[in-house]
Amino acid sequence: MLCPSCGYDNIEGADRCEECLTSLFNLDESQGGKRTLARSVMEDDLSKLDNELLSVTPETSAREVVDQMKQARLGCALVLDNGNLVGIFTERDLLSKLTGKNAQPPTTPVKQLMSANPEVLLETDSIAAALNKMSMGHYRHIPVQKSDGSYCVTSIKHVLKYLARSQW
Q1: Which residues have a Cβ under 8 Å from the Cβ of 10 and sit 6 or more positions away?
Q2: Judgement on whether residues 8 and 60 belong to the same structural domain of the protein
Q3: Pair 37, 29: CB distance under 8 Å
Q4: Are residues 18 and 66 in the same domain?
Q5: Is 55 strand, coil or helix?
Q6: In the prediction, which pLDDT does 32 show?
Q7: How many independent structural domains does the chain possess?
Q8: Which residue in 56, 64, 112, 129 is a FRET match for 89, CA 20 to 30 A apart?
Q9: In angstroms, rounded to a whole number, what is the distance separating the alpha carbons of residues 41 and 22?
């Protein structure tokens, strides 16, 4: 039985998740033939979520990346080098590295400001797995590798849209 909070595969009949101690009581009871929201989050994979992509090269200047993020109305950009994910540049990186007394100049290449080697989920991972990673890592954006090897980004905004749609 998969935990709705962390995705840990518990033995059938367990009352609490062995990994995060979330209650599993009544999780397997159906509700009028409809899937519960918890079961949907556990069973649906990341392909069910909206996603977005803004990618830049490691040599792109911070100014250019920020301009592209503003124009696209996105909170992050993936840094790809010949199709390989090498980092992610987020609003948090912008605020912590391009402002304040230790601010880097806006001409700095994004490779010096990005978060290198970010955690990546697979398109086949569950929405619950994404929520767990976001919660544990304090992330708002997570790169997702698609089945064809390309990348996109899913965010807490996409999860919330999915949850809102699931309630109707």
Answers
A1: 1, 2, 3, 17, 18, 19, 24
A2: no
A3: no
A4: no
A5: strand
A6: 45
A7: 2
A8: 129
A9: 15
Same domain (yes/no): 90, 155: yes
Per residue in 111-120, pLDDT (tens digit) is: 999 999 999 9
Q: Which domain holds residue 104?
A: 47-166
Half-sphere exposure of 47 (CA within 13 A, CB side): 6
- Confidence grade of residue 30 (pLDDT, cut at 50, 70, 90): very low
Together in a domain, 12 and 84: no
State the sign of the Cα–Cα–Cα–Cα dihedral 47, 48, 49, 52: positive
DSSP 3-state of 2? strand
Helices (H), 44-155: 62-72, 91-97, 127-137
Decide: 136 and 146 in contact? Cβ < 8 Å.
no
Q: Which residue has the tokens 């830049």?
A: 56
